[in-house]
Structure to design on (262 residues):
């Protein structure tokens, strides 16, 4: 009997590795945005995840996810998730899910405010955790969504890393829920900023060149300035002497003409 149980556990562990390989882990906010989890409204997944990160879990110095609530007692609508369809890897710990708005009235209003009460997208998102009650910590945190009224969607099930939890904890709910700019808007803004940067750089370069030309004498060494001043004075003296010579020559010519005529 013990041998059979050991074989079963080995097989389950093998299949859990396969499942784990198919469950993508999200490490950054951009990863979460790309999945479109909890989007668009009236889906409640993002508000649910922000609430969970801020009220239900703390990351200790060793990167362990300490539980701030106890899923075993059913708080906030937590209840057992049996993983019968193999949605998540096999675990020695029990799984618990939260987020079913049909069975809770203790979640914050900002999580439940868009719930219509009908079988629509306003109640399709869930958080599932593997919980260690002895150590009071979560081993893994997953987000998923219903593919129908009973089953969850394997292709939209993701593991949330401790890094992502910490990033969410650093954000206000408004910032976390704010829809990022789409790709085309990012491109247009980047191009506009690039063009502005190039234009400003060109203008700056022209101003620098003009200033260098106008302030060239100021930036010169003192010896060069002295030489230029001396040359300028010599040129002025030469011009004065030349003018005097011309005047003397004209005076001589005028005197000669006068003597010849008279």
């Amino acid at each position: 009997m013990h041998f059979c149980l050991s074989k079963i556990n080995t097989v389950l562990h093998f299949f859990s590795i396969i499942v784990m390989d198919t469950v993508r882990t999200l490490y950054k906010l951009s990863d979460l945005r790309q999945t479109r989890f909890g989007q668009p409204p009236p889906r409640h997944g993002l508000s649910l995840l922000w609430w969970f990160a801020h009220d239900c879990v703390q990351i200790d110095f060793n990167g362990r996810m300490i539980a701030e609530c106890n899923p075993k007692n059913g708080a906030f609508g937590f209840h057992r998730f049996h993983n019968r369809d193999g949605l998540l890897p096999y675990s020695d710990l029990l799984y618990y899910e939260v987020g079913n708005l049909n069975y809770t009235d203790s979640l914050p209003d900002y999580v439940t405010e868009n719930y219509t009460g009908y079988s629509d997208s306003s109640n399709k998102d869930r958080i599932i955790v593997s919980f260690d009650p002895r150590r009071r910590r979560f081993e893994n945190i997953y987000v998923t969504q219903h593919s129908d009224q009973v089953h969850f969607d394997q292709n939209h099930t993701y593991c949330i890393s401790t890094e992502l939890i910490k990033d969410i904890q650093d954000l206000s709910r408004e910032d976390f829920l704010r829809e990022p700019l789409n790709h085309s808007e990012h491109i247009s803004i980047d191009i506009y900023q690039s063009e502005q940067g190039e234009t400003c750089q060109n203008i700056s370069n022209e101003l620098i060149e003009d200033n260098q030309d106008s302030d060239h004498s100021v930036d010169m060494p003192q010896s060069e300035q002295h030489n230029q001043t001396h040359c300028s004075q010599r040129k002025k003296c030469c011009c004065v002497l030349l003018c005097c010579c011309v005047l003397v020559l004209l005076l001589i010519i005028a005197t000669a003409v006068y003597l010849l005529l008279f």
